[in-house]
Amino acid sequence: MNFEIITVIIIAIAFGLLIGLSQLLKLRRAFLVSEGYAGLLYHKGKFVGVLGAGQHVRWGREFTLGVADLRKTSLPVAGQEVLSADNVGLKVSLLVTYQMVDPAKAVHETQNWLGDLYNAAQIALRATASGVTIEALLGQRLDIGAQLLAKVQPEAAKIGINVLAVEVKDVALPNDLKRAFADVLKAKQEGQAAVERARGESAALRNLANAARVLEGNPALMNLRLMQSLTSAQQAGSTLVVGMPGGFVPLKQSTRPAGAENAEAT
Which residues of the chain have pLDDT under 70? Predict the structure, then answer.
């Protein structure tokens, strides 16, 4: 009889342990955070802490987990209507490269941290563009990007975002200004072409002047030049009709007496 009571008691204890263990397991919560992300753990809606990459176990009920992306990414800022220092209206688009460094601050201290970053880039663009000319916006994009970065970084740091770079992506000019720039570029290219033609003509004239001076000092060179021209015309199969050129240097007459020539002929 005692053995049966002990057996019942052991069974009851084991059953109770199994029930307690099952209830205890229900309190176990396992959370998995992927690499490149951060987990925001909440208990009954209250923020508990940031979880790094890996598996995390918590005991209790009513735990929830939010996920924040810590990877570097880019935010395109669409073309904004801005006014340059020389009162020219144009559209400028940006590319903002950023990385979240404090997910708790980004999520808890602002309703929409991405929208705040977008607005900060817009405001910085308008403030910077108003202080530079249109030529600077077109030709000094790296310098403009550095100025924008200096303005956007402090504002982004307030919401847990580190801005790595701000680049001027596109600058859209009004149609009339596009035509004006095209005309200026065309005139510049035509001017350069005219300068090159003038240089070529000057070089040709110098060469001709040098040749004239050489011929003036050596009249016999004219004969050689004439013979070269005749040879070239013959090789080309052309018929060349020329008269006796002015300044032609005749060959020296023979000093032998005419009688000697007749004697040799006989």
Answer: 1-5, 8, 15-26, 175-190, 193-194, 214-230, 232-266
pTM over 0.70: no
Long-range Cβ contacts of 134-138 (<8 Å, 24+ apart): 134/84, 134/86, 134/88, 134/90, 134/173, 134/177, 137/84, 137/90, 137/92, 137/168, 137/171, 138/171
**Token code pair at residue 14:** 């084991």
pLDDT of 265 reads 43
Q: Which residues contact 174 (CB under 8 A, 6 or more apart)?
A: 88, 89, 90
Biggest CA pair distance of the chain: 178
pLDDT at 170: 86
Burial pattern 205-231, b for ≥16 Cβ within 10 A else e, equals: eeeeeeeeeeeeeeeeebeeeeeeeee
- Measuring CA to CA, how many Å separate 99 from each of 54, 134, 159, 179? 20, 31, 11, 41
